[in-house]
Design goal:
With 464 residues, the chain is of the alpha/beta class. The protein contains 14 helices and eleven strands. Pfam families: M20_dimer, Peptidase_M20.
């Protein structure tokens, strides 16, 4: 039997075990991969019959892309070694501008209200905006904090750049190669900041009839689901009080934030499978003995269509207000502190031309629907694609089990596969642009597909 002294001695505190978090199960990922393999066998392209620019013009265009290969690969690696985050891409913009200048193209940077945006354009001598078309090719070049180019924007940078320069060189060599205009847009701050939307509101798409860019991925895909995304910052307002002596005099803002977070978890049970809600609680009080006076919840909501994104936003707002009511605190909800992004509306006829161009380069992009729509992120190109017809295909630089925004994908963005994708993507964008500018029947089908798919909405006013 223990002595009285021994019984009154408090036990020594036990330290928490130190260990790494367990690895998530890969069972669902494995099922997705098996489903993808099945769809690869079952799905096939059904390409529309358009003549495009013709094989001779495309052969010359391809040579003009490949003539830039050394410079484009160098830029790809320079950006990879020197990542810059949103709105800070000064060196990237300078490298892009220098490449344009070396090829005799006058470039502007800053442009359209952003210090690190780049703008250039070329047009045929007979260009008339009333009768000729304009297409924009786009680059991204911002990196992720702490990870670098874990989304491969260094590859995107050289695809748009190489495509535009090849078209400019083609027009210089053969003034009659096409009638129309090509606009180059270097677009900063795609990662969470909506750089393209800011540029569009400042006139970047004025007079533009279509747009194209390509994104690196784990495989070659003609089209993939991209979700619209809105940001929301919610502040719960309470009353501070001593948490022990006068708790009844306080109103706990942290309670409101926690109830809201739990409410989002319950809401997920009633949302469509492709809807997404992610939240963090960056501010929840200073000390445990003070009832929290202010707490902040930051969240993203995503959905597959503009109208379902609007509906999800309304439900999330109701959860925030309900949580505040339950906790007896005030609440303020601020939507779109950075511009909202819409889903990507991919244009079918332009996508067909992309497939043919990639097949010329020895690639064979899988049809839309090959990859599960569960694997869906967001991009501000969606805002472009609802203003004008556009494409945002994917080009493989990594193995199929590599996720975006990972260190593994960042490593792949500096690999030989990324180099090849940069050149193949540049040719693909240039080829699509040339086909669009030279084939009137294709252009008419592009416009009809855009109209029939719901394009042409007023992006800035949509969620008002």
């Amino acid at each position: 039997m223990a002595s009285p002294h021994e019984q009154s001695t408090p036990p020594a505190p036990r330290s928490a075990p130190e260990h790494e978090p367990p690895e998530p199960s890969r069972a669902y990922l494995g099922q997705l991969q098996r489903d993808t393999e099945r769809r690869k066998r079952e799905l096939a392209h059904h390409l529309r019959d358009h003549h495009g620019a013709g094989p001779t013009a495309q052969e010359r265009l391809e040579a003009l892309v490949d003539a830039q290969s050394e410079a484009l690969v160098r830029i790809l690696h320079e950006l990879h070694r020197d990542p810059e985050t949103a709105f800070q891409e000064h060196r990237a913009a300078r490298r892009i501008t220098e490449h344009l200048t070396r090829h005799g193209v006058e470039a502007q940077s800053p442009a359209f209200g952003l210090d690190t945006a780049v703008h250039a354009e070329v047009s045929s001598e007979d260009f008339d905006p009333r009768s000729h078309r304009t297409i924009a090719v786009m680059s991204e070049y911002d990196a992720l904090p702490g990870i670098g180019h874990g989304c491969g924007h260094n590859v995107i940078a050289v695809t748009g750049l190489g495509a535009f320069v090849a078209l400019a060189e083609l027009l210089r060599e053969e003034p009659g190669a096409f009638s129309g205009r090509v606009v180059y847009l270097g677009t900063p701050a795609e990662e969470g900041e909506g750089g393209k939307e800011i540029m569009a509101r400042n006139g970047a798409l004025e007079g533009v009839d279509a747009a194209a860019m390509v994104h690196p991925y784990m495989t070659d895909l003609t089209d993939q689901v991209w979700l619209g995304r809105r940001q929301c910052e919610v502040t719960f307002h309470g009353r501070a009080s001593h948490a022990s002596s006068h708790p009844f005099m306080g109103r706990n803002a942290l309670d409101g934030a926690v109830l809201a977070y739990q409410g989002l978890g319950l809401l997920r049970q009633q949302t469509p499978p492709t809807d997404r809600i992610h939240a963090v609680l960056p501010e929840g009080g200073e000390r445990p003995n003070i009832i929290t006076e202010s707490a902040t919840l930051r969240l993203y909501v995503r959905s597959q269509r503009p109208e379902t994104l609007s509906a999800l936003s309304q439900r999330v707002g109701e959860v925030m207000e309900g949580a505040a009511l339950m906790a007896g605190v005030g609440v303020s909800v601020a939507w779109d502190t950075s511009p909202a992004t819409l889903p990507v509306l991919s244009n079918g006829p332009l996508s067909d031309r992309w497939v043919l161009a990639q097949q010329r380069r020895g690639r064979d992009p899988y049809p839309a629907g090959t990859l599960s729509e569960v694997l869906a992120a967001s991009t501000d190109f969606g805002n472009v694609s609802y203003r004008v017809p556009g494409i945002h295909p994917l080009i493989g630089i990594a193995t199929e089990d590599t996720g975006l925004h990972s260190r593994e994908f960042a490593q792949a963005a500096g690999s030989p596969r990324a180099e090849r994708a940069g050149l193949d993507g540049a040719y693909g964008l240039a080829a699509v642009a040339l086909d669009y500018l030279t084939d009137d029947e294709l252009a008419a089908d592009v416009a009809e597909d855009f109209r029939a798919s719901g394009g042409g909405i007023s992006v800035p006013d949509y969620f008002d």
